[in-house]
Structure formats: structure tokens, C-alpha cells
Amino acid sequence: MDFQYYPTPKSLARFAIEQFTDRNPSRILEPSAGRGELAQALKDSFPHHRMTIDCVELDLDNQSILRDKGMSVVGHDFLQYSGGPIYSHILMNPPFNQGDSHVLHAWDLLVDGEIVAIINAETLKNPYTRKRQLLARVIENHGYAEFKKGAFTCTDTKRKTDVEIAVVYLRKESDFNLEFLEKLQKDRAKEEHEEYVPNNDLALNDQFIANRVITFNCAVEAMNESIKLQIRADHYANMLGVSLAGEAGMHQPAKTHRTMYNKAYSGLKEAAWTSILRSTLVLERLGSAAQKRLQSEFEKITELAFTESNVYGFLEGLILQQGDLQTEMACDVFDQFSKYYPGNRVYYCGWKSNAKHRVNAFRLKMNRFILPGAKSDWYENSMIFNSICWEDERRFQDFDKVFAMLDGKTEQSIYGLVKLFREEGNFRRLVLGERLASDYFEVRFYPGQATFHLFPTNKAVLERLNRVVGKHRAWLPDEPVSEQSGFWQQYESAEKVNRKIKMTAHEEWCLKHGTDKGQAEASEKLRKQIEDGLLTAGITFDPDLAIERDDAGALPYSGVAA
């Protein structure tokens, strides 16, 4: 695809920036930003000035470069970008074959501020279309154009062309200044108070996204009017409280309006995107750790305009990533089971060619897991609180989500651990020593040690978890495995072989967290014990034999509702 991308030479960028008469930029937009040459030149021109730069860029690779430079990508196609913030400056080098459309669209977006655009001179010298004629009138009434030859052939040009260009300058003044002064003379205090009647909330589930965007736009409109009223109210208050000589600066309400609007708009946009992220339509199947990872990336999403197309694009991205998210959830739960007590895991010879990774592979035991309570002090008063703590409920909810997913079900359709613990009287029964059952585990609780003992009852689902994680971490092969290799025989006999393994707690810790020397020593000791155990069990494992494909660990489809 030809994006008509001609990076702006530094010399031309400096010339363009010099055209701005307002040397106090606050919020800047660079449409069709490319790799941010103009935006970077603007930052270099005002090195000690705090400013926000928004970029619109179609090319995905360039979007990544812009974000790496610390710039916000708020949209993809500028001609479809409906704006949001009130910009003080728009600096642009649009595609040469669409210069008229881009500059006119920028003019429509601008409320009060300046535009400098680098366009093909032919656009102005040969105004044979209505758009070109309209652009010529806008320039005649609100600015000027300066023509330059050879601007893209100088030594600092990355992509050269001998096309003549025009540097267009436009200044747009907000009618808010006139509206403000007009209302100063027309407004009068009202003694009566009209009752506010809110609109009915739109809450149809099948229109969730459309209604959320409508609500956001209504909130922005109401916020804008509120700010205008606040500026007027402040002006009246100042008139009452200060002398005429003290009113300096009150003739620039547009600048105050721009600052207040942008701050409030950013807050509304973040809230709107957050409502999408937190909606059960999106997150109901994600575990807590997966939610945190998604939230950590969400800052990039909130930079985008809050439109239906962007929301659907975000949801489509989630659906495309759902396999990765599900695998990460499975790994998180696997690690929760295995990290606290070495007895919760059994080692086997993994498939990775690196010997250290081979022997450090492990699976979960099939008979019992011991898990510490998240807050031991909470369980010291277990008969008083009569429930598990919030942190443990979140952890058990992750278990429910993953085991339901691996079983091809939803969390709501199973009798999981969370439902078991929430059921009235169950926690007291556990404290008194009873053993209760959910769909995938039987549970015992020991209040003195604040530990939960989980006994798997569906070993097929647990084995599915072992295989999903094993394949993801390359402990299990993706390719077919020959029976002569003995791989699956040693894998399935891991619990029996591990009965002979003796590793100290420190050696277990060194396997994953130790220095290179500590890991090597612990791995070698474990490798030798596994080999001895396999020999005792009469199992021969040769990892160098040919392999065959095994798809037993594939995840079931689990769609993310949109």
C-alpha cells in the first residue's frame, strides 16, 4: 500500500514551525504523522515547554515508532478522525495527493488555534476541483501560502522529490469569544429554578457499545457547556469583586476554555474506555493476572478517540488474542498451584534441547495441592469472619475460570470453589474439619496453619492443564513423538519416579532463581536423580529419537463476547 509517505526534512520542519505566531503550544495534532518528524521538530523547538502531541497514522509500523517516541496515537485514518480535544496547533504534512481534503478536515476540527500544512503547490496553483477552490478561499480569508522549490531535495531529506510545495498557514478564532461577550450583555440573573429532568438511560444489552459511545458524546457536550458557564460565572464573580483595572486577562476566555476542556475531555475518555475494559462482556473470562496485564497495556488504548469503530477494533483485537490470553491464564493458575510447596509438583525430562530446561520441567501432582491462605491473620479469627479473605476468593475464582475453560464450560455454569465458599455455612463446616466438594476439587481447610488442601476430582482436566502449560513452555513436544523414545512413558511415570528424588528447599529454589552456578548444580543433581529413578522403574528415555505430533494439549475454543 502506498501511504504517500515523504518524511519532512528538518530544515523544512523548522521553517513550518516558525510560521506559528502563538509560541505557547498546549495541545498539538499531527495528522498523517508518519514517524513523527514534524512532532519531534516541534518538541525540539520548545525543549522546555510542556505540551501534549497527538498523532494520527495509518501505518501500523509507524504507530509503534510514534509510541516509542512518547507520542499518543489517537486515530488511524485522519479523514475519519472526528477529533475530541481542542487543539491549539495542528502541524501537518499530508499525502500530496490528498492535501486539500486533509487541510479542510483539519480546519473543520480546529476550534481556536493555528494550522501549518505542507502540501503540493499544484493543489493551490491548479484549483480545478471544488475542494481546491474552497481551500483557496479559506487561505485567502484566514491565512497565507508560501511556495518553496527544492524543499524535498536538500541534504537532510530522507525521501527526495523535486515537487514544488506550499507551506500553508491558517488562523482560526473561536466564535466563543464573540458568544461570550454577547452573553455578557444579554444574561441576567434568574430567580426561578427550572427542575432538571435527566434523559432516560439507554441500557439495551445488544446496543451496549453504541449506547456507550452516545453516552460519552452527550457527556462531552454537557461538559463543554458546563465549562462555558463556569467561565462566564467566574467572569461575573470577578466583576463584582475587583476593580476595572484588575480585569486584565479576562478577554481571552477561549484559551481558558481550551485548557479546561482538554483536561475534562481526557478524564471522560479514560472513563469511557475503562468502562469497556471492565465490562463483563470483555473480562468475564479473564483471570486476575491476565486482567492486570491487559490493564497495563490499556494506556495506549485510551489515547484513541472513543468511537464505535475504535471500540470494535479493540474488541476484535481481544478476540484475536484470546488464545494467548487463555494460555497465560492457564500458566498463572499452574504457577499458583506449584510455587508454594515443592510437593505440589513432580519433575520429568522436558523436551527442550537445553539440558537445564529438560530436567527443570514439571507437572502438577494428581492427588493433592497445599496452598497457603493469602492472609494468615484473617484466618486466626476464622470463626468470627466466617468467610475466606478477598484475596483468596480472587485466586479461587481464577481456578474456576481456567478449569471451566479447559472443560469447555463457562464459570457461571459450574459449581466452583467460589460458589462453594460463598454458600452459607460452608466455611464454618470447613473450619470444623469437614471435607466439601466442588465440581473439580474436594476441599479441606486447616485454620491453625491457614492452609487449603485441594484434592482434584477431575484428573482429565488437570492433565489438560499440565499439557497446555508444558507445550507453551516447550517442556512437551509440538511434533510427533516416537514410542521408542520413551518420552510419554517417563512423563506419565513422573509421580512414581519423583518418590526417589530428594531435593532441599534451597536446591528447589536454585532451579528457578539461583545464580548460573547454583542452577547448574541443582539441575545436575535433579537430572541424575531422575535418570536413576527411570532406571529403577525400567524406563529408557532417548530424547534424540524422531518425534510425532500430539495435539492433546490444544485449548478448546472459548470466545470473548463482543
TrEMBL record:
Q: Name one Pfam family in it.
A: DUF4942
Chain segments annotated as transmembrane: none
Q: Show the SUPFAM superfamilies listed in the entry.
A: S-adenosyl-L-methionine-dependent methyltransferases (SSF53335)
* Coiled-coil region(s): none
Q: Which residues form the DUF4942 domain?
A: 268-474
What is the protein's given name?
DUF4942 domain-containing protein
